[in-house]
Amino acid sequence: MLKRSQVEAWNFEAVREWIRRASSSRQDLMEHADSTRNYFRDVEWQGSAYSAAYDRVAQDHDQIRKLSGEVEELEQIAFQHISDVEAHLRVVQGRVADAQALGMVVDDAWKVMDYENVDPDTRKAHQDLINAAFWSFEDSVSRAAQRIAEQAVEIRSAGDLLGSSLDVADADSQAARFGSEDGKALADAVAKGDQAAVDRILAQMPQPILSQYEMDALANGTGIDTLPASTQDYYRSFFQQAGKEGVLGLNEQLLAKERAGDPLAAAQRTNLANSILAISNEKVSSPNGPNGSYQNLPADLRGMISGRSEDFIGAYTGPPELAENFRDLSAFGELLGQSHPGIEPGKELGVELGRQAADMADYLDDVDKNFNGNLPTGFDEGDRETIESGAASLLDIATRNDEVNYSLLTGNDMPEVPAVGEEYKPSRFDPNEFRNTIFHHEWSDDGAAASNLLEWVADDSGKPGEEGLRANQVLSQLPDYFAPTELTEDGQRIPKSDGDSSVFESNVQAFNANPKLADALAHVMGTNIPSYESPLHDESTVKPDPDAPSGQRAVLETTDADRLLFLASQSEAGRLLLETSRQEYEADLIARALADEGGDPARILETQGNNLAQLDGRITNAITNALTYQNEQKLAEHNNAQQETYENRQKAGEIVKSLTLDNMEIPGKGGPGMIGNAVFDVIKDQGYEAAMNKWNPEPTTETMPYPDPQNIDRDTRHAIRQQIVDSLFRQGQLPEYGFDRSGNRVDFVDQEGLPVDVRKITATSEEALNHMLRERGLFDFVDRYTLQHTTEILAGLAQEEDDLERFLTGKATTK
Hints:
Elements: H1 4-8, H2 12-42, H3 48-101, H4 120-161, H5 175-192, H6 195-204, H7 212-219, H8 229-259, H9 263-279, H10 299-306, H11 319-336, H12 347-371, H13 383-398, H14 402-410, H15 431-440, H16 448-460, H17 465-482, E1 485-487, E2 493-495, E3 497-498, E4 501-502, H18 503-513, H19 515-526, E5 541-544, E6 552-555, H20 558-568, H21 572-594, H22 601-608, H23 612-659, H24 677-686, H25 688-695, H26 709-730, E7 737-739, E8 745-747, H27 766-775, H28 779-796, H29 801-809
Antiparallel strand pairs: 1-2, 3-4, 5-6, 7-8
């Protein structure tokens, strides 16, 4: 993002002066060309030699005129776009001035920072105006740079063709040649460590490859066909010749400059990352050119991306080579992370990045399982963190593309196995293995990148067309991914076993290790309440629904949904998001009932809101049981730690016994530090074990206090009445006050003009509230809601140790 301080320091007049100097130089060039041609035209020289010389001079003059025309076009482009940028900047500055006139402060990132003196709506309105103006300004800047860079390539081409047998007018077809030359020169410069040569090449590369509009379009999953053909040709050829080493070497040098504080290097790295993503994206093309493709990346770079760690197990490769490969992959992931926020990779590149991330995570998991977390000889200190962050970076880029997420999760619509060279050994993709690796790996980012594989379902499930259909299909399959079931001999459906535990319980542990997964699943469940609100669905599937934007909606069987809600409740943010979403859903339905033209909200709530209480109970159970589960785990850790301490002291006692008592033939004759006679006699009299128990008593196992359903019910009655009071207030239907049995006034609106807190209404004043609810036909709804909620709580709330064990594994604890 362009900072405010940077932009306000721009000198547009200096740019215009540069354009005028270019124009003056162009005119000087034409004067010299005219002078040379006029000289030969006026010279008193005849014959075939003269004609040949004059023809050559005239031809050169014509070529120079065409080159001059390219320069003149650059002048026109630059003047036009600089004026456009300046005009857009004035609009942004005007929006900032408007905010400042009201006393608001706008920071260097164009954010309105005044939170105290201006009301939130006013501040947000001005922020929106600044954001809209700034987006247009940034787009104008990127388009200006794009068009100037494109024309600069034309001039470079024309200048290169001048004096050759080719027509300068063919300059627009030379971009591929320049890309090839620059790519090869870059590879050589990187190999030699020639920084000056790298800088020259960077200065010649078209930047930026994408305008702000195009970057935002790709970030939204929309294809673009506006990439200049010359730019597409240049970068396609550039990457083929630069190869993996050239690309990574260029990134390394730019990164060093960026870390030294060079803002230009940061912009160049962003352009390099954007160009890799654009040139390989199947949705990117020039107006009449081919679409992008994974094959546009060099073979050795594709080999690195699509290769696997097992490829380095052989006679000529081993841990040192694998370590270097992981470092290269991590550097590549970090580079792609420098791209414009949200810009999507193409389908094939995205799938390969995701698969590579899984392979890197799987390698670390294998090291943990088989080598106690110690990387083999050949790896350096810090390589584990490098591999971990690299895998997360690759996964984060891959999961920007929802089509990629769908394919990685389901195994459907996978691209063809990439052809990346003779040494590449393609492997079959198993979505089950991929999901298990990604979701069960303990990520250092708390599962943030992995959570993108779920997050898109929340965003897309409410969309029309193919996007909505894909998301609803995955939503209906989430129970199979995270809580698969199997039938017992007596026909009961219980969680599928996984050794001594269940697949579901192992996923609960994974969601605790990676709380961002719980956050994402809570978002999915919170935005899809209609999919599981009804307890009548007998299976999780996708069904036609005319009210759904895509025409179909996922429906979740009750127990399937409850287990997903339990998973989503494993994080604090997930619990908050679930309850907030439920309350918003409930409030919306109550508001629609109160706004019913028939004036009978109870009828609407009875027909459309008959599942609200059960929904409240189910989500309350999921949240409460998740907290109970986590407390049980902490208590188990505490008890285990106490037991380990006890056992450790017992072992120490055994050692002391063997060194002192058992080997002591004459009591009291030991040397310094040995146990004295008196202690020895006591131990001999009372017995060694009894003495040890006095010194180190076996710890008492602490037990869990379980939640009280009555407290939950009491809170629920308050909550639903508060929900109704708030909705009546928003609808303008809440009276300011009522009267209790004694005729005393009971306020329903407080002194600040807001609905009262129902919990603060006294028992004697409660009759006034109940009377008001009866008048509106809502009292029975509250009673029915509370009763249904109680039933749901008693059926699903864990109140003893076996309850959660049955829920997690389908079996009771063996005592």
